[in-house]
Design goal:
Layout: E1 8-18, H1 23-28, E2 34-45, E3 50-54, H2 61-68, E4 76-81, E5 84-85, H3 91-98, E6 101-104, H4 108-111, H5 118-129, H6 134-144, H7 164-176, E7 182-186, H8 194-211, E8 214-218, H9 222-228, E9 231-236, E10 239-245, H10 246-251, H11 256-263, H12 304-308, E11 314-315, E12 323-324, H13 329-332
Parallel strand pairs: 3-8, 3-9, 6-7, 7-8
Antiparallel strand pairs: 1-2, 1-4, 4-5, 9-10, 10-12, 11-12
Helix pairs in contact: 5-6, 5-7
């Protein structure tokens, strides 16, 4: 039995944001610098699957989501959706594709027009896709609102009349009204209290089971990823450093950066004291990324090879299904992030693992 092809496949995706040169730089003929927000990311999302995307602020998660949703044009690389290259889709082809991919933004206050009523907010996507009467838009929005947990009698309310959770549900309804296949969820539970977070996540999981949606869940909330995702990808400074089944990655992380993220989570029992794995050192600039591994300046396992050779994502035998971008993955794989003992460095004359 052959595995079905992924719904979304991203190949070596790159997004650089050029910076303006100053007058002195212009006179000296210096090249235009750029922020390397996303640098060579490859990933897949299956049908009916949720891929969690975690990492520190500034790691490139949101930019990656926006590029996948074609809100930013990629600098290079490919975006394949259902086997079709949509990287350079324009005009009618892009408009048709947007019906299949939608995004829920992190800030519902900023992304919802305060001048529009709820039925207009949710229904504006319908107007953008086809000519449709106001009565038909109201009818379809009326039917959609209960799907996301909103009462249908709130059609004529303005966004400011909703709670934070209500505005996020409006954003979700706006994405779902076109019946997409893939939804990019950018921090869908940020700034919400725990009870409302649980309601939003439960709604997303329920809709996925009923309708087969695929999600990319971008979040800082590791608990949300653990609950709602099938696989998880960890980003650091524009690159994917580890990806695999959610339980495997979160319970037995391999990459030193993933270990640091897990070790930073709060302890359920405050009376239990434990030695935590911590990272220090300066975060490299994304304007002039260093050669080699971008985590090298903060990694306790760094060797000479790490500073000159960029590691590639690869699977290691002891952790099938997990792919890790680390030269010393085999050596550090089974070291707990909670009681860390750093292994001795490998001599630069000793061949590093392939």
């Amino acid at each position: 039995m052959t595995a079905s092809p992924p719904l979304l496949e991203v190949r070596d995706l790159v997004k650089h944001f050029p910076l303006n040169r100053g007058f002195a730089e212009y006179l000296r003929g210096e090249p235009i610098r750029a922020v390397h927000a996303v640098d060579g990311v490859s990933l897949t999302v299956g049908r009916g699957e949720t891929l969690g995307l975690i990492g520190e602020s500034g790691s490139g998660k949101t930019t990656l989501g926006w590029v996948i949703a074609k809100l930013h044009e990629p600098s290079s690389g490919q975006i394949l959706f259902d086997g079709i290259d949509v990287t350079v889709a324009q005009g009618a082809r892009l408009k048709a594709w947007r019906r299949r991919v939608q995004i829920v933004f992190q800030d519902p206050v900023g992304s919802l027009d305060p001048r529009l009523r709820a039925w207009q907010v949710v229904g504006e996507a319908l107007q953008g896709q086809r000519r449709i009467s106001r009565a038909e838009i109201r009818r379809r929005v009326f039917e959609m609102l209960p799907t996301v947990g909103l009462p249908p009698d709130c059609l004529d309310q303005y966004p400011h009349e909703f709670s934070g959770g209500g505005r996020q549900r409006l954003s979700l309804a706006r994405a779902l009204i076109l019946q997409p296949e893939l939804i990019v969820l950018d921090e869908p539970t940020s700034a919400l209290d725990v009870a409302v977070q649980a309601q939003i996540l439960n709604r997303l999981v329920s809709l996925q089971r009923e309708r087969g949606y695929s999600y990319i869940l971008i979040t800082h909330n590791v608990a949300a990823v653990r609950y709602a995702s099938h696989r998880v990808a960890v980003m650091y400074l524009g690159e994917i450093v580890e990806v695999g089944p959610v339980r495997a990655v979160l319970e037995k992380p391999v990459h030193p950066y993933t270990k640091a993220l897990i070790a930073a989570l709060p302890v359920p029992d405050a009376r239990r004291r434990r030695t935590r794995y911590r990272i220090s050192g300066e975060i490299p600039t994304l304007v002039r990324p260093p050669p080699g591994c971008r985590f090298a300046s903060r990694c306790p396992f760094v060797i000479d090879r790490c500073r000159v050779e960029s590691p590639k994502l690869r699977e290691i035998p002891a952790h099938p299904g997990q792919r890790v971008a680390c030269h010393r993955a085999e050596e550090v794989a089974d070291i707990s992030p909670l009681t860390m003992v750093v292994p001795p460095p490998v001599s630069s004359a000793t061949p590093a693992p392939a």
